Amino acid sequence: MNLKITKMDKDDLEYLIQNLEEFDEFWNEKILRDEFLNENSCYFVISEYSNVLGFGGLWFNIDEAHIMNIAIKKEHRRKKLGTKLLEYLISYAENEKKDSITLEVNEQNIPAINLYKKLNFEEVGRRKKYYQNTFDAIIMTKKF
Ligand SMILES: CC(C)(COP(=O)(O)OP(=O)(O)OC[C@H]1O[C@@H](n2cnc3c(N)ncnc32)[C@H](O)[C@@H]1OP(=O)(O)O)[C@@H](O)C(=O)NCCC(=O)NCCS
Predict the structure, then answer these.
(1) Which of 72, 78, 84, 109 is deepest in the core (most CB within 10 A)?
(2) Which of 77, 117, 136, 139 for a ligand 1 pocket mutation test, highest count of atoms within 8 Å of Cβ?
(3) How do residues 7-60 score in pLDDT, each as one tens digit?
(4) Which structural domain range is residue 48 located in?
(5) Protein residue whose Cα sits closest to atom 42 of ligand 1
């Protein structure tokens, strides 16, 4: 595959908004637009030629980065695109001189948890019954 990872631009954003259900079942147009405009956030797309196959974003505070989301188009999952995009987000955060990178994931989301563990994120805490008042959010961190 001829893949590249670039900063999300307005065309990518509009494409994602039109096709969001093919990538992610939890985000909506408002969240994505707000995130795109947030000056403390940085969003990327992974594409092959002009086809957007996935997106992911970081939010920064003074000393740490937070992964806000990472999503691969359903028909392109299990091809290591999530791994490539996550590796890119990690190295981007490291180059920004952050101490660590953190995220929250639903305890039910086994694909994502496995992906994060594979890249050496460790569970550091839980928010009990955070999702639908039922499922825990697992907080995972990777220190640099
Ligand atoms: C999580 C997600 C980004 C993974 O992307 P992907 O490109 O399919 O992942 P990869 O092909 O790089 O897989 C890397 C590892 O993740 C794990 N994994 C991925 N999909 C999995 C699945 N369906 N079941 C179990 N483990 C899975 C495996 O450990 C896999 O390694 P392996 O292929 O050697 O077994 C993708 O499933 C997705 O977009 N999910 C919906 C959005 C979402 O939930 N994002 C996370 C928000 S916190």
Answers:
(1) 72
(2) 77
(3) 999 999 999 999 999 999 889 999 999 999 999 999 999 999 989 999 999 999
(4) 3-143
(5) 71
Task: Determine the atom of ligand 1 nearest the C-alpha atom of 118.
Answer: 29
Number of domains in the chain: 1
pTM: 0.97
| Residue 34: CB atoms within 10 Å | 10
Nearest CA to ligand 1 atom 38: 71
From 81, 91, 141, 80, select the one nearest 116 (Cα to Cα).
141
The CATH number assigned to the domain holding 98 equals 3.40.630.30
Indicate the length of the chain as a whole number. 144
Query: What residue owns the CA closest to ligand 1's atom 29?
Result: 114
- Residue 119 burial (CB < 10 Å; 0-12/13-18/19+)? middle
